[in-house]
Design a protein that fits this description.
homodimer, about 350 residues, 7-stranded mixed β-sheet, Rossmann fold, alpha/beta, 6-stranded parallel β-sheet, about 30% helix, globular
Chain lengths: ~350, ~350
């Protein structure tokens, strides 16, 4: 089968690899009907040192179950499923608490040893019963794009909003206008935010953010951005900040625009090593939370809104490519020519 | 009147200063019946550069109102009051939200410009109506020591517990066996914690912690302490960590012993500049919260438990001295000869 492998920064290839196959009897094989490229895939695309064996890429997909191991009971051949970016057994103490990304047996697609990537024709799903969410829909339906976002970005935006304590009447800022930031706008609106300030600079993304519910746009950076948000939010900052970038500058902006007693939900994979411990976090009693989104635990909550059309996160996809064009997709996202690229193997 | 002034590290003096007097009509003058020395007072005692004018010390007291300005309506001469370590107007948006340490007009005793310290015969209280909590007791009563802790340490331990999300059934660790850590043990037990692990090394403090409700003691440090807490808590760490020290080592221990999805409530004034952004905080979805305790907002909740004897935080005081002996009190606390020193002017 064909699958995407990155060998070093800038060097993404689609190659022939052995077909995905059952290894453990708790596995399933999913034929990928849609995958996509994630903002976090751009980090190795920017800075990965050269390797001989490469790394299999992709951690977001929807697809159809092709085969299941003998221990798989809940998922069956032919099911149309969402694959969350992390696999999890659904049985352990953390899965029961809804923190599926900390599953004791779990791991991450495209990262954990021996687990393939989703930018491929098919993928082996460990712990299939716990991991896969069976959709109550047929494979060919008009909601495919939005369903695909339940694999990561929409659920990640929701996680950012939850950990930033978004609720009715809150003033919210979203740092970053990537697909996760845009889904963060959807999530903040869905949870009842009163004001949603998007910090971003790209006209097409800003336009989409406004349609999703952003009430204000701040296109400045650094100190200027901080001043602008403080002014827009009445002088003291916002209650809730969704940090969807993962750079040091973004994190500093996030804590600087948080109101005393407010919270930052960070979901941008951190490419910074530290968070300021003193000013402005301590004296302002700012809460810093977030991490990898427990996607598997959120799908049941978000799915009805997708099915009934109340949210349309699939609109973040602005390019659709075939599997062999995946390297072009990385280039387009890296150059900010695309918000998010969908892959149709 | 006599008041305590620190001029440089190790140089604390009790001197004659002008009597505390009304400056603004919203002020009150409180005759200090009991003050005390705080663990945070030891930071300037350790590292303050020399100054000519010095800094007035003390931010914890109970006392009797001697005079009030013409705009003071709720507090009157003769009232027996608690003075929280921060002053606040009780009117602004942050006071209404219960975050009195972020009061728009507020500040901190012993720090804010023009505001004196409580290790003195008397002190001027700005914004007296918002700041002072009038006690429903006479000045000479058996609860004096515990009432004094409502000025800071007991309320700060409570803040650590709240921001670390302590609740029924939770596994809790308290980093630090100082007076705040010991009050953190009281707070954790009061909020229903199932397991309370104290990280501390001093036999007398450990003994008191056990009486307050600590179920386990960890006297190791660094990696060894982390391993021990993980083992005691069933392998994954505790849900809630109360960080009451404020050093980098303490904070690293705190985040390392937090269970995935758990929270750190930090109340030790940070003498470290950064918090690790990546491991172990991000992947484990750890929440970091805390800051200066909103003492004024907590007194009403804690007071009934003090009055009815359900909690006895006053037991953290193990030395009582007169005002002129305050320099000896600093030495005793700095050398860990005293847990917390009460000052009776």
């Amino acid at each position: 089968m064909r699958a995407t492998i990155i060998y070093k920064a800038g060097d993404v290839r689609v190659e022939d690899v052995p077909d995905a196959s059952i290894i453990n009897q708790s596995d399933a094989i999913v034929r990928v009907t849609r995958a996509c490229i994630c903002g976090s895939d751009l980090w190795p695309y920017k800075d990965m040192p050269p390797t001989l064996t490469g790394r299999k890429m992709g951690h977001e997909a929807i697809g159809v179950v092709e085969a299941v191991g003998s221990e798989v009971n809940k998922v069956k051949k032919g099911d149309f499923v969402v694959m969350p970016f992390a696999f999890s057994d659904g049985q352990c103490t953390f899965c029961h608490e809804g923190l599926t990304t900390s599953c004791i047996q779990g791991g991450f697609f495209g990262y954990s040893e021996g687990v393939g990537g989703a930018q491929a024709e098919a993928i082996r799903i460990p712990l299939a019963d716990g991991t896969l969410f069976v959709l109550p829909l047929r494979e060919d339906n008009a909601l495919v794009a939005s369903l695909l976002t339940l694999s990561d970005v929409m659920a990640t935006g929701h996680h950012a909003a939850l950990t930033a304590k978004v609720g009715p009447g809150k003033k919210v800022a979203v740092v970053g206008d990537g697909a996760v930031g845009l889904c963060g706008v959807i999530a903040a609106k869905r949870l009842g935010a009163d004001q949603i300030i998007l910090l971003g600079r790209h006209p097409n993304r800003i336009a989409l953010a406004k349609e999703f519910g952003a009430t204000d746009i701040v296109s400045q950076r650094g100190e200027e951005a901080v001043e602008r948000v403080l002014k827009l939010s009445g002088g003291y900052g916002v209650h809730c900040v969704l940090e969807s970038v993962g750079t040091e500058e973004a994190m500093l902006t996030a804590v600087s625009i948080t109101r005393p007693g407010g919270a930052v939900g960070r979901v941008g994979v951190p490419h910074y090593s530290t968070i300021p411990a003193w000013e402005p976090t301590f004296y302002k009693n700012i809460t810093i939370s977030g991490g990898p989104a427990a996607v598997r635990a959120y799908i049941a909550e978000l799915l009805p809104d997708v099915i009934e059309g109340r949210i349309q996160p699939g609109r973040v996809f602005d390019q659709i490519i075939g599997l062999d064009s995946v390297p072009d997709g990385y280039r387009a996202m890296d150059k900010r020519e695309a918000i998010k690229v969908m892959v149709k193997p």
